Amino acid sequence: MDDDPTTPKLDFKLLELLVCPLTKSNLDLDEQAGELISKKASLAYPIRDGIPIMLVSEARKLTD
After folding, report:
1. What angle do CA 47, 26, 14 make, to 5 degrees?
2. How much is the pTM?
3. 25: phi > 0 → left, psi -120 to 50 → alpha, else beta; which?
4. Model pLDDT for residues 2-59, shown as the tens digit of each residue
5. How is the chain split into domains, by residue range?
6. Does the domain at residues 12-61 carry the CATH identifier 3.10.520.10?
7. What is the Cα 3 distance to its own chain's centre?
8. Is 24 left (phi over 0), alpha (psi -120 to 50) or beta?
């Protein structure tokens, strides 16, 4: 997520409630990449227009 003031930001209260749909584990926010990271599932869920896309089919596989 960039520093553009017109870009919607993720609500941090929402982040506290979200979990990985695959593992039900907590997520970490990567603001620079605009993704929510599930370390347990090794997946990165995209955030588009301030909305987290919590679909495994839309997630990017993380590499070591």
Report:
1. 50
2. 0.81
3. beta
4. 455 545 577 778 888 999 999 999 999 998 999 999 999 999 999 998 889 999 999 9
5. 12-61
6. no
7. 17
8. left
